[in-house]
Amino acid sequence: MSLENHAEVPRDFGKNLCACISCHLVKTLDQFADGGCENCGFLGMDGDKDRCLECTTVAFQGMISVIDPTSSWCSKWLHLSKMVPGCYALSVQVEVPPDIKEIMAENGRRVHESG
User: Fold this and answer.
1) Contacts of 20 by beta carbon, 8 Å cutoff, 6+ apart
2) pTM of the entire predicted model
3) Distance from CA of residue 42 to its chain's centroid?
């Protein structure tokens, strides 16, 4: 299996982690600002720290590392089988801004919000 297309591993496993509100990929805010989200380029986070703050959250629980999303039962259970290998939040608590909701819907992403 080739890992040419994979997400950057978080550089810091301390309090600096955040998760993409669309795919739940976990990295540091600086990593999202430097390279965007490998699954959600349509959110335009690459090079835009303000956009990263809109499209990520620190309100997540648990984390899983996915090496082969197509064969992992856990990635299928978490709806990650079409995502790139990387670290993902198990659950994300977020209220998605209306403009981000619209972009996600236009790109075939379901919105999972906390109640």
Assistant:
1) 26, 32, 37, 39, 40, 43, 45, 55, 56
2) 0.86
3) 12
